[in-house]
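Input record (one chain):
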Amino acid sequence: MSDNGNNPFKIAQKQINDCADILKLDQSTREALLRPMRELHVTFPVHMDDGTTRMFQGFRVQYNDAKGPAKGGIRFHPDETIDTVRALAAWMTWKVALLDLPLGGGKGGVICNPKELSIHELERISRAYIKAIAPFIGPEKDVPAPDVYTNPQIMAWMMDEYSSMLGKNQFGVMTGKPLSLGGSPGRGDATARGGLYTLREAARKIGLELNKATVAIQGYGNAGSYAASLAESMFGAKIVAVCDSKGAVCCRAGLSSQTIAKQKQSTSSVLNCQGSECISQDALLEMDVDVLVLAALEGILTGKNAERVKAKVIVELANGPTTPEADEILYKKGVHVIPDFLCNAGGVTVSYFEMVQNASMYYWDEKEVHERLDKRMTRAYHEVFDMSEKHHINMRKAAYAVAVSRVVEAMKTRGWV
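The corresponding structure, as predicted from the sequence alone:
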């Protein structure tokens, strides 16, 4: 991460500076936005199954809480860095502001490889991490959620550990929990569903018929797999290519999301999916498709490959998949990019719904969750699109302008700047 061009936090800071120019912010306000308000680094021991004890390193960043308690996921990843966590916390700040949620932005992570851990080791790491950061979080301070390589079960362990420390149930300290422990209906596919609501609105703006559209999906984890099944069920779109960490496959005649899911479940990969042929991941990004869904990690589209992208719409379900250089190229090419912190905000929006339900101890049904999510995502998309048209800027800069202006208003009203 030493290369500033690939450092996600340097990218996040450049995006903030570009937005500050658009909004004509004064220097002190700009400086307040460029760095996290607070961050915690922890090192903690975990007893492994073989009898040894290993030390693990973790982070929790609260980027800005002017509008409310910090909110953001926890990632377990072998390549986790503090700059990645800082960037993700910054993006979360703008994301919750863009959806006009009464929250701030946070993020956390542990450097580990869950694929090499037993279920018991994973539980011990989860409990040890939350114990280490417990003074830093809480329902009215900072509420974590699942992210890369974490899931509802991990959230349940963390919530239970935190509750044990306080001597009372604290379901509201985590979101993305199982339904049996205060989770919200509709949380499982919320990120993908929210993204497809924005795709629906984008398609109406640019005249794309989604029932005839072809879709390539880069990344086939939670968000990518739900995007495939929902693109079929909501729009009748055709999935023609998918990839995961092991490789990519394509089929111009179309791949059934059910067939892909069965292959992934039985072999842990989309490779050799029935009726498909193998292609490179670079080839998938450059396919002549209507919709390209980016659902993996950061920095996928760069100044080196953006010129070769042929998709009409890019759906950013991942965080930070497009660099600023790629953004400018895609905008000039006329590619309609639905930026990450608008497109993938469905997850945090339903997490907010979960917080509301936990606090009131009254739970909604899935239909109500979907309706509330649709309303918020649709409104946010049009606010960003209108800002883009008004100032003749790309959708990401427009999303920043909408979101940052809301955070700045809260900071100024509180007397911070």
